[in-house]
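If you are new to this repository, start here. Below is one unmodified record pulled from the training split, so you can see the exact layout before writing a loader.
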Amino acid sequence: MQRWRGLEDIPQDWGRSVVTIGSYDGVHRGHQLIIGRAVERARELGVPSVVVTFDPHPSEVVRPGSHPPLLAPHHRRAELMGELGVDALLILPFTAEFSQLSPADFIVKVLVDKLHARAVIEGPNFRFGHRAAGNVGFLTELGATYDYEVEVIDLFVRGAAGGGDAFSSTLVRRLVAEGDMEGAAEILGRPHRVEGVVVRGAQRGRELGYPTANVETLPHTAIPADGVYAGWLTADGERMPAAISVGTNLQFDATERTVEAYAIDRVGLDLYGMHVTVDFLAYVRGMAKFESLDGLLEAIADDVKRSRVLTDVYDAER
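And here is the target side for that same chain:
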């Protein structure tokens, strides 16, 4: 998959293409439906497919300080889009100047002059241009002038018989913030992931016989609610069942919120300085302060046991 940053990176001889535009944070199942259709339509037309997204998130430029928690960094989104068969990813730097483009100018500068769109695939709520004034109706209207077609894809909804909420990144963020990892995974199509570099912490886990990887997560990462979770720690390509703690460590009156993962049944791991990923499968229990060290150790042992079972069952079902 080709990756471009900015309109100037697009090859001068780029021909017609099928395009879809959006933040696509998380590349959840609704996004997958839209992107998958763009890939399918591109193959039908015999042209490449292009996903256009933005960095930073537009809300941070339009309303500074309002950057939403991110479900996936750009390199992870690119990986997921590549798995869907996307031919090229264009990341547009979203600046104050860019935010002033009218919907018509956006269409001409991005879709017509640079990407030579043959077709544009979007969800029904797609908005673009200054003050998000452009919608799929306007996009379709200008398609007649600039020789591209527009196809609108309905979003998935949760619940039986189409009831419930439409699949959205906003909904996934709320579920993650609530610690509902099963609900988040239902929309994402996979467990929610955070990543970062392993840094030195207080090393209390090591002293207790449960050494943890203290993960310094990337900026704006969507972190699950405080608690203990079952999931996986992946380092250097190795995926290991893990018991994961999120919170401030009430037992020792700590104040810094951390993400720490204990790789179950692994001895002698040295992960300091390594970039790792942590996938959250299921909520195990809330954070608690125990009356004694023995009570804490008993709870940790149970966390590890339950996490081992949950990850084994998940893997066995796939």
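Two things worth knowing about this chain: The mean pLDDT is 92. The longest helix spans residues 293-316.
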